[in-house]
Design goal:
It is a single chain. The protein is an alpha+beta fold. The chain folds into 5 domains: about 80 residues, OB fold (Dihydrolipoamide Acetyltransferase, E2P); about 60 residues, Beta Barrel (OB fold (Dihydrolipoamide Acetyltransferase, E2P)); about 300 residues, no CATH class; about 55 residues, no CATH class; about 110 residues, Beta Barrel (OB fold (Dihydrolipoamide Acetyltransferase, E2P)), CATH 2.40.50.140. Helix content is about 25%, strand content about 30%. The chain is built from 14 helices and 32 strands. A hairpin with a 2-residue loop joins strand 23 and strand 24. Helix 8 packs across helix 12. It is globular.
């Protein structure tokens, strides 16, 4: 297109058109560009979005709108929003299939349609390649066609699998060149007045594979005679706020992402590696700026006082969790030995005191094993295991929780607006379901009084050694609300804390960066604190980062499901032990013991009976036989189908359920549709699963 044509287009935008608001726009000064602007027409015109108080439709950064365009005397465009539109995905991923009729893209997302790929748009992709594509609109018929932008490669490599989740959930994973440039050019703020804490031998304790170290700890006996047996505990956190300034390119990118996302072989960081793995990583032997909290605790671990400081520190020792645990157990490595007496021993003693306070506080005590995936050199699953939980892990967790509490208390006391980390108490409906379920196990559970974590802990302790332990733990977990970020403080039920705010990971969570800025303002630690613009946006920021956190969890879960489905796809017809992890009207979910993989058993394949979902028992029961499959039951299953791209597994039940009285037709029973009888050959092969 010629420059003259481009100029004509610029001068003659339609009165009503579709606009894309730039994702990094200031919410108070939204700027948009035409949604279907062709790059060959030159730079897209910038359009100011007018927003009035009377407007019912108020768009935000990154949204697509239908708008009415006008042009002022200054020849600049402005627009009024008519409607907020659903924004289509600009790119998708799929598998290339070649045939005599040409090339097609088979989308990974089943909701998307197949598209043709012209030979000149294949970019070297071959049959079976997993590719990233751009959607092109061709001809008057506006037929969508795919253009290959990148060849991802092996559809089952980890890099490809995590990329599927990133695309499906629209998680930003590539930094714009201007963001990278801003990170490379950044320098620490030398105008900040810092206390010199270089003499304190801080220690970092992280997973052995950690590439960044954003927290360091130290403890010593309190010399104050009025606090006998007490400790001074120091927690230092990388001072990200001194590098990432409100409203800057880096700040807008961090806000957009909300948090880092972690996969088995990939990290999608909130901030470029220049910051996360370099400037803001508390490396051993290097001076680093930090935000620190100094806590005074008594011999029973109760906090007596605390204060926040902006400091310069130097980490004296870097340890992995196993190395730290070995030192605490009296077997320090060569590097740790010189630090046992001056640092590690008082750190351990301080933790044991804090553990007493934690036990007295009685947070919700759900011990949920977290499985880790180990990949081979090809990026495929090698093995799945549950890492051993050590006291060294709990030490860091307890000190981070204490630091987070201090942040919330300081900001509330100073009446500084902030984003709290909150966790609501269970709702009445969930408690009613739990009560009915426990009643079916002859376990009393009262919901009349104000519910506290200790009420759940009492049941968990009582049933820990019983045959119902897993069922009870699973149902208690399901009864809990989901934690979130909120400008209103309604406490953290799970931790049994009235005041809690995330402070300890500003490298990977935007909430923590906001809290750091609020503390800078509250404690008068610099001029780079919370801006007025941020204060006005705290509610929308908290909603956004709650969404990005849920999105990250979904991406991690989807990637794990796809990897394990691929891992098990070569084991069709193999038998596995597991537990029933979920029950719905249409069937059962079973979680395998070895890998933690979840698969589905359709109710129509359970047996030669009509099965009824009995909600108060969390069970599926045969209407004639009384055969019962219950949440938490140990079962043996056979793998029938594995769909790696969908991350789905289908099992066949081999175990026989417990025999009980057939259910009546009550309000809490839901029957499944009838199913055909099994063959005699299949029925003979069923085995009774072990029950504890």
């Amino acid at each position: 297109m010629s420059k003259n044509s481009a100029s004509t287009l610029n001068d003659q935008l339609p009165r009503v058109t579709v606009l894309d608001i730039l994702p990094d726009s200031d919410p108070d000064e939204l700027i948009a560009i035409p949604a279907n602007w062709q790059s060959e027409a030159g730079d897209a015109p910038k359009i100011f979005i007018e927003v009035k108080r009377s407007d019912r439709t108020v768009p935000g950064p990154g949204e697509r709108i239908l708008a009415r365009i006008s042009k002022g005397k200054d020849q600049k465009y402005s627009a009024r929003t008519m409607k907020i539109l659903e924004r289509p995905k600009r790119a998708q991923i799929g598998i290339i299939r070649l045939s005599k009729n040409g090339a097609r893209l088979i989308p990974i997302d089943r909701k998307q349609k197949e598209m043709m790929v012209l030979p000149e748009h294949l970019s070297g992709a071959k049959d079976g390649d997993l590719v990233e594509v751009e959607t092109l609109i061709k001809g008057r018929a506006m037929v969508p066609m795919a253009k290959v932008g990148a060849i991802i490669g092996n559809p089952m490599s980890e890099g490809a699998v995590s990329l599927i989740a990133l695309h499906n959930l629209e998680i930003p994973y590539r930094f714009d060149p201007k963001v990278i440039k801003a990170a490379e050019e950044i320098a620490p703020n030398d105008q900040i007045k810092r206390e010199n804490w270089l003499q304190i031998p801080f220690i970092t304790i992280d997973p052995a594979s950690a590439k960044d170290h954003d927290d360091a700890v130290f403890a010593q006996n309190d010399p104050d005679k009025s606090n006998p047996g007490g400790f001074l505990v120091y927690v230092a956190i990388a001072d990200v706020a001194s590098y990432v300034i409100p409203g800057s390119v880096l700040d807008k990118e961090a806000n957009l992402r909300g948090n880092s996302v972690y996969f088995p072989d990939r990290v999608v960081p909130m901030l470029p590696e220049r910051i996360s793995n370099d400037l803001c990583s508390l490396r051993e032997g290097e001076n680093r700026p930090a935000m620190a909290v100094k806590m005074v605790i008594d011999a029973n671990g109760n906090k007596k006082d605390h204060s926040f400081h902006r400091v310069i520190i130097k980490v004296a020792l870097k340890l992995s969790y196993p190395e730290a645990q070995a030192a605490f157990d009296g077997n320090p490595g060569e590097a740790a030995t010189p630090f046992v007496k001056p640092a590690l021993s008082p750190l351990w003693q301080a933790y044991k005191a804090m553990a007493k306070a934690r036990e007295h506080r009685a947070p919700l005590d759900l011990d949920l094993p977290e499985r880790k995936i180990v990949l081979n050199k090809d990026g495929l699953v090698d093995r799945v295991f549950v890492p051993k939980r050590m006291e060294a892990n709990r030490l860091i967790e307890e000190m981070m929780v204490a630091a987070n509490v201090c942040a919330a208390q300081t900001l509330e006391k100073k009446k500084i607006p902030l984003i709290f980390r909150v966790h609501d108490s269970p709702g009445t409906e969930k408690l009613a379901v739990l009560k009915d379920f426990l009643k079916s196990l002859n376990i009393d559970f009262s919901t009349s009084a104000s519910i506290r974590p200790e009420h759940f802990n009492r049941i968990l302790r009582k049933e820990k050694s019983s045959e119902h332990s897993h069922q009870v733990s699973e149902m208690v977990l399901r009864s809990q609300a989901q934690a979130e970020y909120n400008t209103k403080n309604y406490g953290h039920f799970g931790l049994n804390l009235d005041q809690y705010a995330h402070f300890t990971s500003p490298i990977r969570r935007y909430a923590d960066l906001i809290v750091h800025r609020a503390l800078i303002s509250a404690c008068k630690l610099g001029k780079d604190g919370l801006s007025n613009s941020e204060i006005e946006q705290l509610k929308s920021i908290s909603e956004h980062i709650s969404m990005t956190e849920r999105r990250a969890m979904a991406a991690e879960r989807q990637t794990t499901d796809r990897l394990i489905a691929q891992f098990l796809s070569s084991k069709i017809s193999a038998r596995f032990n597991g537990r029933i992890s979920g029950i719905v009207r249409s069937g059962l979910f079973v979680r395998l013991d070895e890998t933690g993989a979840d698969g589905f058993i359709p109710a129509s394949t359970l047996g030669r009976d009509y099965f009824t979902y009995v909600e108060e028992q969390q069970a599926m029961i045969g209407q004639k036989s009384g055969e019962r499959f219950r949440l938490g039951d140990e079962v043996e299953v056979k793998l029938i189908e594995a769909a790696p791209m969908a991350g789905a597994l289908r099992f066949e039940m081999l175990s026989t359920g417990e025999k009980v009285a057939p259910p009546g037709r009550g309000k809490n029973t839901r029957s499944t549709k009838a199913r055909p009888k099994r063959s005699a050959k299949y029925s003979k092969g069923r085995q009774r699963g072990k029950r504890r």
